[in-house]
């Protein structure tokens, strides 16, 4: 075919490769994949372009509809990248290559908004209360309510600041308790903890991890944990990354809800942040660590699986 028709030549080679690999046994997927890799290497082509060529070709109308859907999803969810949007398309029954979604988003200038670098908040850890060992370091929970992580951050109002305390289930990433107020007293953290306990009623033995802040080390907070038979755990000095899952939620909250907003007062902030936690973060936001599911969807699926396993 020559150099004057590179597209036709490439399509011809792909057709030959497809025919040569079609007859391979279905019981040898790894061997077939290796054979494809070998053949495209001989043809001096890329595997990505071959697999892209194998995808069903969309008509111009279907292609326009896909592009329109991607645009609407991207504009509704300004902070979601192409991988999450690809998963949302898949949930709607559209099997689309993630790189294709990336190309269309890039062409339409719809790539997710950049987030500010995360700066861990300052914690007051110089106090007289007892500091406990870090039990969460390297721990990977295997189920719900095995490990809770807690944190506090500030929220800017039109004038002044308020403070948000959260408790997050480390396995599902769900925010199970939160409290927002205009002070940093221990009762702020206790209120978030009480909400989590009321919502989940976890068994004794749960590990509760936090930084070394005075709120979490206070007698009031420690007593609440001891009453429930929870194990207390605290981060190492100057190492907030031990509490990464709680910090990750705070980063998402600041980027997707708080930044660029001016809450009129405490009640306005409480209403909007509560709606973000319940309706967006827990119920709708896709988490890559959860297989691109929301925390609520992940927990529901987990409970269904456990029910099936317990009733064979």
Any key phrases for this structure?
alpha/beta; Nucleotidyltransferase, domain 5; 5-stranded mixed beta sheet; 5 strands; 49% helix; 11% strand
Can you offer a commentary on this structure?
This protein is of the alpha/beta class and 312 residues long. It has 3 domains: 6-54; 60-107; 147-306, Ribonuclease H-like superfamily/Ribonuclease H (Nucleotidyltransferase, domain 5), CATH 3.30.420. Helices cover 49% and strands 11% of the residues. The protein is built from 12 helices and 5 strands. It has helices spanning 6-22, 29-42, 47-54, 60-76, 82-91, 98-107, 186-200, 214-217, 219-228, 244-258, 266-281, 295-310; strands spanning 147-156, 161-169, 175-181, 207-210, 231-234. A 5-stranded mixed β-sheet has the order 3-2-1-4-5, sandwiched between helices. β2 and β3 (175-181) form a beta hairpin. The longest helix has 17 residues, at 6-22. The chain is elongated and about 75 Å long. The model is unreliable at 113-124 (pLDDT under 50).
């Amino acid at each position: 075919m020559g150099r004057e028709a590179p597209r036709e030549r490439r399509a011809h080679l792909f057709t030959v490769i497809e025919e040569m690999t079609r007859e391979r046994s279905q019981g040898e997927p790894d061997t077939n994949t290796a054979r494809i890799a070998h053949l495209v290497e001989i043809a001096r082509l890329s595997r990505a372009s071959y697999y892209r060529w194998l995808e069903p070709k969309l008509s111009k109308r279907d292609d326009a509809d896909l592009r329109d859907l991607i645009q609407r999803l991207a504009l509704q969810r300004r902070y979601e990248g192409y991988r999450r949007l690809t998963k949302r398309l898949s949930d709607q029954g559209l099997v689309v290559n993630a790189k294709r979604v990336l190309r269309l988003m890039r062409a339409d200038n719809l790539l997710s908004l950049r987030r500010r670098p995360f700066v861990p908040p300052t914690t007051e850890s110089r106090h007289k209360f007892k500091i406990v060992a870090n039990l969460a370091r390297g721990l990977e929970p295997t189920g719900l309510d095995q490990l809770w992580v807690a944190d506090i951050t500030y929220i800017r109002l039109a004038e002044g600041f308020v403070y948000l305390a959260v408790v997050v289930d480390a396995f599902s990433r769900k925010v199970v308790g939160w409290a927002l107020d205009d002070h940093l007293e221990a009762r702020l953290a206790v209120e978030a903890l009480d909400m989590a306990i009321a919502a989940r009623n976890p068994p004794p033995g749960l590990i509760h991890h936090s930084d070394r802040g005075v709120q979490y080390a206070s007698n009031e907070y420690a007593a609440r944990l001891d009453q429930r038979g929870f194990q207390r755990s605290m981060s190492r000095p100057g190492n907030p990354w031990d509490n990464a899952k709680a910090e990750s939620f705070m980063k998402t909250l600041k980027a997707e809800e708080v930044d660029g907003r001016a809450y009129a007062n405490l009640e306005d902030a409480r209403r909007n942040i509560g709606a973000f936690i319940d309706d967006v973060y827990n119920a709708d936001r896709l988490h890559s660590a959860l297989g691109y599911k929301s925390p609520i969807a992940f927990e529901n699926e987990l409970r269904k699986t456990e029910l099936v396993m317990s009733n064979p």
